[in-house]
Amino acid sequence: MRIYLDHNATTAPRPEVIDLVTRVLRDTWGNASSVHAYGQQAKSVLDEARSRVATLIGADPAEVVLCGSGTESDNLAIRGAADAQADAGRRHLVTTAIEHEAVRATMAALGRRGFRITTIPVDASGIVSVDAVREAVTPDTALVSVMHANNEIGTLQPIVEIAAIARATGALMHTDAVQTAGRIPVDVRALGVDLLTLSAHKFHGPKGAGALFIRRGVKLAPTLTGGRQERGRRSGTEPVAIYAGMGLAAELAQAALADEPGRLALLRDRLETALLAGIPDTVRNGAASPRVPNTTNLSFAGVESESLLIGLDLEGVAVSSGSACSSGTLEPSHVLRAMGCSHARALGSVRFSLGASTTEDAIDHAINAVIRVVTRLQGQAPRGGR
Ligand code: PLP
Known about the structure:
Bound molecules: pyridoxal-5'-phosphate
Strand order of the largest sheet: 2-8-7-6-5-3-4
CATH class of the largest domain: Alpha Beta
CATH superfamily of the largest domain: Type I PLP-dependent aspartate aminotransferase-like (Major domain)
Distance between the termini: 32 Å
CATH architecture of the largest domain: 3-Layer(aba) Sandwich
């Protein structure tokens, strides 16, 4: 039995999505900018994809820019907002210590170009303080960018409150909703954001497709210039088949929103409770709530997550680790570090992320495998704290 518990990294494309992508690739290969029938057919597939993505997040189709990935969408939001507002004297950007690299590295690059960056810390439960954002935002703030849910620990951030603060000072509000769009209800109006990023491969769509919601009236400088596709905001001939796949995946994800989050929360809680109770000194990283329903992040005492990952992979269970190997040494994740976790606790952390393929059987199998592998590794490890 092979069990995939790494849905926050990516998800399998749904069979209907694969069928549609294949069909469009074969039959509707025209250039969507062409005036002739080939082009118009491609344009109508593109329009449908855009509408489906827009419906998923409560936006108008005209407010959705289709692009190549969540990373590209984050870049367009942040660089586009920074560049568009710099001339008006707004050269300050606010972000948090737990963002994905797509945001972190982009902010760092803008910092090197002379933008002032304020990075808001998080508390021990991984939640950004609204008061800290209020203190950070000034009349020269161009953009506040705070992720909707964290990819490692799953905590949901207080976007509604933070967006209200940004709005009050005339700054734009961006949220990276890559871990929430298509997984829990996401509505751009209810959140009050100007810019929102999503990525198709996180909700059973194809890789190579993402989108940026740009509220009507918001000005962004394009990061890709050229043939002025996507109303000049993202040039490049559109990969119509891939976008069609994203559109269908969005529609199917939306239909599943009625039941899937509740189903996953029960399974996630079953896994979390069994591991916390079954392996001494195991702790959860991040708040239990508010949190997305599919994610838990646990630290096991006296175990390095890389060894656990490999041991579990041999048992057919795929998870991911909160640490990454950099120049031959294990580096704890920036998210766990920002939460103040000790080095050892961060190095022992593992992320379990559930999805459409996760069944009760799979969870019970995973529980047994984790207990077996952790117990074996703990037996080998020198004794020590977390
Ligand atoms: N933002 C978050 C929170 C993510 O989890 C990811 C991917 O893991 C990204 C952005 C990047 O998205 P993509 O893989 O589509 O570039």
